[in-house]
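This follows on from our talk about sequence and fold. Please put the record directly below this note.
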Amino acid sequence: MPRIFVAQTLVDTWLSTGGVSLEQDLLRVSGPPSVDLFINPAVWFERIDGGEADPHDVVGRVKTSQELAQMGADHYESSVVMGDYAYTVRPGFIATVVDARGAEVRLDGPTWGRLMQQIETLGTSSDT
């Protein structure tokens, strides 16, 4: 099932404009159609600090909080430290479409495309 990364700053913007509501770990996207996204805390690795090579091969990748813990990484705001290496990250969430029971929903191509358009519209409805 496709998952998407949604930056925390984008979620904050959507919440402030009323485009979404948050109920525990569900992000409800206003419709039509309304869509529920299960969100799991994650980070997107922007770069390694200090211009060094990336020994963990994570730059440009998304890792959940659970994956970071398994890797022995320490995460604080926009930084992750793994061993002797520090990274700049973008905090956010991995989002998965779910039904009313919380089960993942398989979307066909056209439906996935409409969802992406709906999400992109949320991003253009604000001043940021």
